[in-house]
Design goal:
Elements (H helix, E strand, L loop, with lengths): L2 H24 L5 H17 L5 H10 L10 H4 L9 H33 L1 E5 L2 E5 L7 E3 L2 E4 L6 H16 L2 H14 L4 H24 L4 H10 L11 E2 L5 H8 L10 H48 L10 E3 L11 E3 L28 E4 L2 E3 L10 E7 L2 H11 L7 E6 L33 E4 L2 E3 L1 H5 L6 E8 L6 E7 L5
Parallel strand pairs: 2-4, 8-11, 12-15
Antiparallel strand pairs: 1-2, 3-4, 3-5, 6-7, 8-9, 10-11, 12-13, 14-15
């Protein structure tokens, strides 16, 4: 599952918990400022909570307790994996497409506000400074500016309107509005986000109504001024609107008696409860994932690798010695499992369960290949029939041993290849080809099977002529195997003579 989807799921679960806490316990209380802080805190916690990756911490502790063994598919080491598009990729694409739509809509609303501002002019009504607009729109405020068309309202209502919008500007309610608008852009798919958006804006109106009435305005006259507003109720402008949309609810809350102070205990109870529920969800999921890794990782990796090796080595390795796979690096090899293919041993310091049977951290061309203790630049010249074992080192183990000597190449992993030695022979005289000067002037030890074709500077030669070549004249050698016939060809380029 992509990291983006995981983040969105966690964030929206926490956001839903906060909204449910508000809806069932707090929305009917008259502690409007506390409700504002609660809703803002819930929104910010939902955005930041997924960044506290507790599950990765727990899984890391479990990973450090043991290591596991992976099998190497020889063909996978020299093949590239073509990218695939799955359902998650489509989901992420649709998500960003819809986010783009809401983002464009958001900027259109900002542009509309900018146009209204440019077309308005500074004015003053008694003691209130505002921007006089000519459009038929409801009064609104943005940041510390009030926008009103005075020709649409009676003089008796204008004083209440300016007092109302002045509270919005003084309390910086625009910050709450911008935050919730951005939240709906990113969390558009969650219905709770839209409910939270409405709750935040409603609560801002409750706060404003309370402060206006506390300034000495008559309750009934103020409520009548709300009813007298007859302009359009549809707003494409971002800001705090003097709106009739929630008029009934606002009047009901204005007439409601002050909540008893004993209800303050609900805030003390609800907020910690939601945080604990979110933590329990994360820790329980992390525990399940950790247990799954510790109990099934080795068996799944071995099973997947064994199947891959059975399929991929039928035509390349043939009948050979049984493969021994240690269940645990610390266990005796006598308790290992066997299949009918060449023995390959792989060692690594940590296991990435997303990578399956592939070797994590090793990409085509990136690892440092060590053949019988010496570095080589390509695997093409190595005959699989002559391989005794392969060891793969990753991360700190590779860098600690080979980093000081070979530099940054060891950062991406080290593949150690050991070739077979016939009875009574040494590594040196067991090789048919010696002193093949590659990138690092390394001897490539390989037995050449019958039927192999030889080419020198593009010209076909016989095997006898090949064996008589002076290794010191060879500049490069490339081995190519025909997948259809199973036969290989060796292409040799000799050094150019100095003029």
């Amino acid at each position: 599952m992509p990291e983006l989807i995981i983040y969105l799921l966690k964030a929206n679960i926490v956001l839903t918990l906060f909204y449910l806490g508000y809806y069932f316990f707090l929305r009917k209380l008259t502690f409007y400022m506390l409700n504002r802080y609660y809703l803002l805190a819930g929104t910010l916690i939902a955005l930041m909570y997924p960044l506290l990756d507790i599950s990765s911490f727990l899984q890391r502790q479990e990973y450090l307790k043991s290591t596991a063994v992976l099998m190497v598919n020889w063909q996978e080491l020299t093949s590239e994996v073509s990218p695939k598009i799955d359902g998650w990729d489509v989901s992420v694409g649709l998500f960003w497409l819809t986010v783009s739509f809401f983002a464009v809509r958001f900027f259109i609303r900002l542009f509309t506000l900018w146009r209204i501002h440019k077309q308005s002019e500074p004015s003053r009504y008694t003691t209130y400074d505002y921007r006089k607009v000519l459009l038929k729109i409801n009064p609104f405020s943005f940041w510390k500016t009030i926008y009103v068309n005075p020709s649409l309202h009676k003089d008796a209502d204008l004083d209440d309107i300016f007092k109302h919008e002045l509270v919005h500007t003084q309390e910086l309610h625009t910050l709450d509005v911008l935050l919730v608008e951005l939240l709906t852009i990113g969390f558009w798919f969650n219905p709770t986000t839209w409910f939270m958006r409405q709750a935040i804006k409603e609560n801002l109106e409750f706060i404003t109504d309370r402060k206006v009435l506390a300034s000495g305005v008559d309750r009934k006259s103020y409520q009548y001024s709300l009813v007298h507003i007859m302009t359009s109720d549809k707003h494409m402008i971002i800001g705090n609107h003097f709106s009739m949309q929630t008029l009934k609810k606002r009047i009901r809350m204005m007439n409601k008696r002050q909540s008893a102070k004993i209800n303050l205990g609900k805030y003390v109870l609800v907020l910690p409860l939601i945080i604990v529920l979110a933590l329990i969800f994360t820790i329980s999921k992390a525990y399940e994932e950790t247990q799954d890794i510790s109990s099934n990782l080795v068996s799944k990796q071995l099973s997947a690798t064994e199947n891959n090796l059975k399929d991929s080595t039928k035509n390349t390795i043939g009948n050979s010695k049984p493969l021994k796979i240690a269940e645990n690096p610390k266990q005796d090899t006598t308790k290992s499992r066997s299949v009918g293919i060449t023995k390959i041993k792989v060692r690594k310091d940590s296991v990435d369960k997303k990578e399956g049977a592939r070797i994590p951290g090793i990409k085509l061309g990136d690892p440092l290949y060590i053949l019988d203790g010496k570095p080589i630049s390509t695997l093409n010249a190595v005959n699989p029939n002559n391989i005794e074992r392969i060891e793969v080192l990753k991360d700190t183990s590779a860098w600690a041993v080979y980093g000081p000597r070979y530099g940054t190449r060891a950062k991406n992993g080290v593949v150690l290849i050991t070739t077979k030695v016939k009875h009574g022979e040494t590594k040196k005289n067991a090789d048919s080809v010696t002193n093949i000067h590659a990138e690092n002037e390394v001897d490539i030890k390989s037995e050449i099977p019958k039927g192999t074709k030889f080419f020198v500077n593009g010209v076909s030669i016989k095997r006898d002529d090949f064996e008589q070549l002076d290794p010191n004249t060879i500049d490069s050698m490339n081995v190519v195997k025909d997948a259809a016939t199973g036969k290989g060809s060796i292409y040799i380029v000799t050094k150019k003579k100095a003029k």
